[in-house]
Amino acid sequence: MKESKLTFFISYIVVLFAIVSCAKRGSITGGPKDEEPPKFLRSTPPNYSTNFKSKEVRIYFDELITLQDPQKQIVISPPMKMKPVITPLGIPGKFVKIQFKDTLIPNTTYTINFGASVVDNNENNPFPFFQYVFSTGPVLDSLSFKGSVKDAFKKKLDEYVSVYLYKADESFTDSIVYKDPPRYISSTLDSTEFEFKNLKEGKYHLIALKDNNSNYTFESRQDKIGFYDTIISIPKDTVAQLRLFKELPEFEFDRMKQVSKNQFILGYRGLLEAPEISVLDNDTIKTIFYKDPKKDTLNVWTKPFFEQDSIVFIAKTKKYTDTIVARYKDQFKDSLTVSMSTASKLRLNESVILSANTPIDSLKITNFKLIDQDTLAVAFKHKLDQFKNELTISFQKEEDTRYVLQLLPEAITDFLGNKNDSIKFNINTGIESEYGKMILNFQQLNEWPIIVQLLKNESKVDYEVILDEGETSASINAIVPGEYNIKVIFDTNKNQKWDTGNYLKKIQPEKVIFHSEPINVRANWDVKQAINLGE
Known about the structure:
Blueprint (H helix, E strand, L loop, with lengths): L1 H24 L14 E5 L11 E12 L2 H4 L1 E3 L7 E3 L5 E7 L9 E5 L4 E3 L10 E5 L7 E9 L10 E6 L8 H4 L4 E4 L5 E7 L2 E9 L13 E4 L4 E3 L4 E6 L7 E7 L4 E7 L6 E4 L6 E6 L5 E7 L6 E7 L4 E7 L10 E3 L4 E2 L5 E5 L3 E4 L4 E5 L8 E5 L4 E5 L7 E6 L4 E3 L8 E7 L6 E8 L6 E6 L7 E5 L5 E7 L2 E9 L21 E3 L4 E3 L4 E7 L3
Parallel strand pairs: 9-16, 25-33, 34-41
Antiparallel strand pairs: 1-2, 2-5, 2-7, 3-6, 4-5, 6-8, 9-12, 10-11, 10-13, 13-14, 13-15, 17-18, 18-21, 19-22, 20-21, 22-23, 24-26, 26-30, 27-32, 28-31, 29-30, 31-33, 34-37, 35-36, 35-38, 38-39, 38-40
């Protein structure tokens, strides 16, 4: 009996092991990956309903779905003051439920555009550009209008730019975009194209908005805006292009903060024009300031130090005056430090730039010595920019040569009376064959001046040249090898920089054109490229 039980137990273990082994060898893989998007089955009330009176809509699909990024993707036109509740959010379901909280406008066609928000629960396959359309009246509006949006300054447009249509009637004023939602709304989603559908015949104002708060109104401090110069007439007009820009805020100074015994920092917003800063009602305290190269901030310095709890400054620009109170206490005193802002390896057409941590007040040029690798003196020119707090040293350079710029003691004196100790800067020049050259020939160029820029990325201009009246080609030498985007700014007001627009003043931003593809610059190579500026 015991032997029979033992035989049965051993046989059971062998069979179980065989089953497990087979299971491992032939484990279920789950089949091919699901790449099919969800399919729309039906909706209640039906899509494209008229005389719509329901408070709730249900849209059914053939599988479990979720909604991705619904706040940005789902666009309702015309918008509702009280946004509807749309589910499922986070929990998968086989239908989308829309519960209206706002009173619907009579005799109006509504469009709910889901973008790419509807995805299946397993693989996130999107069901793109699904729309649910209904009318509270007896007919559906059927006209359409489309166009594109580009960034006025950058090559790439932000995602999810909203595009609005406002009725062009007696109720429209320019201030409406700051406080009231539009009549119709569309979106670029993740492209540059937009399209309005189910429009009513009429005349409209066209606005684009990077609506960061998703509240259908323009908040100039954080939103970008674009506007069309003329009124759109539907169905006569069918297409338009908008340029999106960030307005400069109205100028104002920010708070002032003491950061060392004699230094304060003063932030500002807007366009800084001809600033003046002094201590109010105190001629004994002298001031000087320079701009921070990376931020909208002024570095303000005072002397001498007085024992007092606070100090009052008067700050002025061309159109603005403010009094600013700052706390004032004894802190550490700054010493003078001089550094070379440019790279130690210079291109042949590049200058040496020196900067200091305290304001440069005066120079003793006889204490500046520049020698080459044979210890021969090299003639140079200098230029002090006190607003940038930079000293530029320019000289005729030879390729593949070592230079030494020496500052003897007291070559530089700062605003506080500090003088430099002996300093040496080693400078090397590259070989001309290490660099490339770009020759750009501009076609359909009919307005000047233009600013031509080479950029490896959006945040930094690597090379720049300005073409004046009649010039149609730009030659840029000593370019570090790499890929560059070509950016052309039409400098309409001739101030040698790009100027943004203003919605209320109806000023469009200065035109910018990017060459379609980046250009590769190779060492010891001349690149010739035609740039068509016709749009």
